[in-house]
């Protein structure tokens, strides 16, 4: 699908952590800048809950609160260097200071407050093009960022505050199949080199995982248009009876969020074994997450979010 980028383009990049802007949209940003358009970066967290690279570089085992604040400040400086490599002024960066590895909790505990803040940013930036993590991205902050952005745009549009922006999703972690048409922009050696130079500004990350990160950034930037699901509440998961006592479902819509243990969720089961979340009157997009809150060293989602 062709996407028109010109001097009227107002791109908003939703980046859950420092380095996502370079890995996923480093070339898109350059295209918009070269066409005379405007770019704003909504940086959700400072990536301070990132203990293994910090332990490696600082030669420390225990990470205290002050250590995390210092690490977040370091990553804030790194993203500033990356944006300069991509031709963006520092005024284009808008850090929200949300908790790293905590965006799902923001949805569960303060969705209305988050949507109020996010619609304020939409009012300020008035984007007509938004790049947002894919709903199926395996990192919980990335998928939660998708949910927050989609619900904020729905509320913003309902209030009649701006034109409907084109939403493009990007995938960093995993191989999730996404709906929507593929969007690929032309690249060149110079454009790609500038993207990799921006990535190299994130020294705290490439020091330990440089090969993996350069591999992620080395892929062609292919986005997908975001299209509403419009389903009937059927869930893509069929957890076993032994798993269900440990599982919870979180439902998020424009009017709020609620969480149930699996046993108390408003579910019905078809003869085929599929589960359906019973419909509610709330209009607009609705998203549900299946999750287990038992402690784990694994940070990525096993089930994640789906759109109803």
Question: Which value, in Å, is the CA radius of gyration?
Answer: 19 Å
Shape: globular
Beta strands, count:
13
Biggest sheet: strands, sense, closure?
7 strands, mixed
Point out poorly predicted stretches: none
Q: Approximately how much helix is present in the residues? A: 25-40%
Order of helices and strands, N to C?
A: EHEHHEHEHEEHHEEEEEEE
- Integer average pLDDT: 93
**How far is it from the N-terminal to the C-terminal residue, by CA?**
25 Å
What is the strand arrangement across the widest sheet? Answer: 3-2-1-4-5-7-6
What percentage of amino acids are in beta strands? 15-25%
Distinct helical segment count: 7
Which structural class do you get from the secondary structure elements?
Answer: alpha/beta
Tell me what you see in this structure:
There is one protein chain. With 308 residues, the chain is of the alpha/beta class. 37% of the residues lie in helices and 20% in strands. It is built from 7 helices and 13 strands. The chain has a 7-stranded mixed sheet, with helices on both faces. A 4-stranded antiparallel sheet has the order 9-8-12-13, covered by helices on one side. β10 (267-269) and β11 form a beta hairpin. α4 packs across α5 and α6 (189-200) runs antiparallel to α7. The protein is globular, with a radius of gyration of 19 Å.
Tell me the layout of helices and strands.
Layout: E1 10-15, H1 20-34, E2 38-43, H2 51-58, H3 65-85, E3 93-95, H4 103-125, E4 129-133, H5 140-158, E5 166-170, E6 182-184, H6 189-200, H7 203-218, E7 222-225, E8 247-253, E9 256-261, E10 267-269, E11 275-277, E12 286-292, E13 304-307
Helix pairs in contact: 1-6, 2-7, 3-6, 4-5, 6-7
